[in-house]
Model the fold of this input.
Amino acid sequence: MANSRSGPGGSAPAPPQRSRLRWVVYLVFLLALLGINWWLAGNALSPNKPTQVAYSFFYQQVQAGNVASINWTGNAINGTLNHPAPYPPGSTDKTVKDFATERPLQAEDNLTTLMLSKNVMIDTHAPPTTPFWQEFLLGFGPTLLLLVLIVLGARAMSRGMGGVGGIGRSKAKLYSPEAGPRTTFQDVAGIDEVADEVKEIVDFLRHPERYQRLGAMVPKGVLLAGPPGTGKTLLARAVAGEANVPFFSVSASEFVEMIVGVGASRVRDLFQQAKAVAPAIIFIDELDAIGGSRGGPHGLGGNDEREQTLNQILTEMDGFTGSERVVVIAATNRMEVLDSALLRPGRFDRRVVVSPPDQRGRRQILAVHTRGVPLASDVDLGAIAAATPGMVGADLRNLINEAALLAARRGHERVERADINDALEKIVLGTARKIMMSEDEKERTAYHESGHALLGMVTPGADPVRKISIIPRGQALGVTFQAPSTDRYGYSGAYLRGRIIGALGGRAAEDLVYGEVTTGAESDLEQVASIARQMVGRWGMSEAIGPVTVLPPPGQASPLLSDGNGPSQSTRELVDKEVRRIVDECYTQAVASLREHRSQLDSLAHKLLERETLDEADAYAAAGIKQPRHVPTPVPAQTAARASGPRR
Done:
C-alpha cells in the first residue's frame, strides 16, 4: 500500500473529504455573519418604530389637545403626542408617544378643522426614506469590513509565522557589500592559519577565470569547527567582506518549524536568492541543529522535519556545478555529531578547525579589540595575553569591554592596568561580596587557601601560584590562582596528579589543622573527580584499565550496552575503583606534604589573614619558598583558578 507523503518541498495534501468539510464550515460561518449583520443593520436603519393605535384613540387625543404633530399621507396618519398616554386606554404599564393609525374612508368627523383648532402641526409630505447608499453601507459594510480584516489578519499571520505567501521564505539576513563598513581579514586576528585556508575562496570569487582555466573547482562548502567564541562567524563575514559579495547569514534552527516541509522550502528559497545575486556566500551557523546523524544509536530518529531540511541542503549542494559562484560556509562546535553525508567530498569539501588562540594570537586579538580604547601607559597587552590561557576571542573582547566600563565608572581618562586586573577577576570569579565572616571561619578559609597555594609551590611541575585571596567572590569564600608560564597542549600523568594534589590541598589543610573537614571543598572535589575519571576512562593512565577509552567525551551521553560498544558493568566498577585509588593516593600525599611543611603553611595562612590578598611575590615570600623564574603575570588566569568555600 503506497503512502501519500509529501516530498522534501512541501506537506501532504489534505484529503478531499476534509477539504469539502472545511468549505462547508466556511460557508455556514459566512451566512451566519450575513444574517446577524442584516438583522443589526435593519434595526439600525429603523428609527423608533411607532405604535399602531386605534383611530378612536387618536381622535380622542386630538380632542384632548395632546397631539403635537402628524404626517398625513392618504389614509395613513403618523404622529407624535405631546405627553405619553396609556394605551390601550386604562393600561398602567404601557404608554405611547409615537403612533400610527388609519383614517376610515367613511369618516365624517371634520378632522382637519378639529386639528387646526387644537394647534396640531399637519404635514402631508411622504416621510423621508434612507438613501440606498446608506442602506448598502449599513447593511453590508460591517460584513465586508469584517471579511477584509480577516483576510488582512491572515496575511499578516502568514508573514509572521511563515504561513501562506511566506511559509517557505528564508529568514536569512542579507549583508550587502554596499551597506556599511565591511568586515575584512584585518578584523580577524589570532587564527592566521585558519584565515589562510579560506583566502583561496576569496580569490576564486574575485577571479574565477583563473581557476576555471585550469579545470579547478572551488570547494562547494567550508565547515568551520571549533569551540564557541573562537571567531567562526567573524571569519565567514571577513571572507564575504574581502570578496565584496553579498553575505546571507542564517542560523540552522531558523529552518525548522512545526509544519513538516517548511524547512526544506526555506532552504530552496535561500539558495535561489543566493544564486540570483551570485557571486555570494551563504553562512549557516550552528549546523548541528539540523545536520545531526540520521538514525543510528546517536540519532534522534522520527524527526521528519529536521531530516527533510537536511536532505534539501544535501540536494542543493549536490546541484552546484561550480559555475554558480555560491559558496556555503557553516559553523559548528559539535562536528562529531554531523551526518556523514554532509562531510563527504562534494558537500563540505573543506573542514577547518578553529582552535582557541595561543599567547601570540591572544596578543593580536587584544590589539584588535583595543583599537578604539584609550589605554594607559602601564597596560601591557603581552602580559594580559600571557595571563589568559584558554580564553577565546569573545572572552577577550568581553574583558576589554568590562575594563572600559569599570574605568568609566571610576572616572579614568584611560583604561588602566588595575581596571583590566579587576575586570578579569570579576569575569573569572564574579563580583566581590561584602559579607561578614566570623574570625574562626575567616581563619579556616585562610588555611584552606594556603593549603592549595603551598602544594602548588612545593609539588614538582605544578603551575606557579599567581594570587591568593580570602575575599569572598561569586560563590566562593576564597580563591587561589595558578597559571602556567606558557600555553599547555598536552598533559602528563604526573602533571594531572599534581593538579589533583593541589585541588585536595584545602581539604587536607583543614583536616591537618582542625581534625575535621567542611563543605568548603565542594568545588575542589568536583574538579578532582573529573580529572581522575578522565585519566582512567579516557586517557589510558590506569594500568588496571589499560590504554583503552571506556568513557565518552565530556558532554556526550554514555553509550548504551545494547549497541555492543559500551563498557560492561564490571569495567565501570573497575573505573570507579581506579578513580578512588588515584584520589586516595593523591590525598595521602597532600596530607603528608603539608605535614612536612607545616611551619610554612602556618606562616602563609597568618600572612593571608593579615592582608587578605597576596600577589605572587608576596605569597612565595610568606611561605619562604623561592619564586620560580618566569615572566611575572600581573593578572590571574581563567583556567587555573580554584574557588573554595561553601556555595551560597
In short: The first strand starts at residue 51 and ends at 52. The mean pLDDT is 77. The two ends are 63 Å apart (CA to CA). The CA atoms of residues 469 and 613 lie 4 Å apart.
